[in-house]
Amino acid sequence: FNTLEGLNKLPKFTSPQILEDYMDHEDILPWAREPMSQLVKAGIIKGSNHTLTPLHSTTRAEMAQVLKNLLWE
């Protein structure tokens, strides 16, 4: 997110989803709230079963999907 922001390449908002749509949105740490919100609104991060699981480690498969979403955005 910080790299994209620094390059002025943040994805445009294309998703109707917002952070508050996810059951565990309050588990997102304050410093990550705005980046997560923007990536959800852009459809880059989609979560699973109405959760984002921000307190768990990201798997390789999840990160690969995020990168794919960024590259084909």
In short, what is this structure?
The chain is an all-alpha fold and 73 residues long.
Q: What do you see in this structure?
A:
By secondary structure, the protein is mostly helical. The chain has helices spanning 2-6, 30-41, 60-71. It is globular and about 30 Å long.
Helix content: 25-40%
Structural class by helix and strand composition: mainly alpha
**How much is the radius of gyration in Å?**
12 Å
What is the approximate shape?
globular
Note the topology:
Layout: H1 2-6, H2 30-41, H3 60-71
Write a concise keyword list for the protein shown above:
single chain, 73 residues, mainly alpha, 3 helices, 40% helix
